[in-house]
């Protein structure tokens, strides 16, 4: 068995393996810094050199409560994070760029913190988010807009998970 380490210049809070079959050892990581100076990074493992290398990095205002690649590789590599907003990132030509910043409160600059999210495994255009404000929001990533929002609990909603049926999800809170 082998063990390899990557030591980023920040404490790692979240991570997710890429679904890109051409890059089986690509990993997205996010930081946990108690200031508004957090990071999101993409790293690759090179089997020939047995080492990780930084592919791209971007700033993230608050610690990402979750980080996850899209369930299947579309024309671009999409990555999402939640914290104050749902952020959609695009990895293209060695650069991690913000594709969208989506608020679960229409017309408001600030929104309640998002605690988690999940990509729909059967329809990678759909993401569900959950929030401390008791809501779950279903997003259309292609249109970059809210499809629907529902009050899911009497208190905070901490997690959401899609089933293998594209219209069914579960929440915890």
TrEMBL record:
<dbReference type="InterPro" id="IPR045159">
    <property type="entry name" value="DCAF7-like"/>
</dbReference>
<protein>
    <submittedName>
        <fullName>Uncharacterized protein</fullName>
    </submittedName>
</protein>
<keyword id="KW-0677">Repeat</keyword>
<dbReference type="InterPro" id="IPR001680">
    <property type="entry name" value="WD40_rpt"/>
</dbReference>
<dbReference type="InterPro" id="IPR036322">
    <property type="entry name" value="WD40_repeat_dom_sf"/>
</dbReference>
<keyword id="KW-0853">WD repeat</keyword>
<dbReference type="InterPro" id="IPR015943">
    <property type="entry name" value="WD40/YVTN_repeat-like_dom_sf"/>
</dbReference>
<dbReference type="Pfam" id="PF00400">
    <property type="entry name" value="WD40"/>
</dbReference>
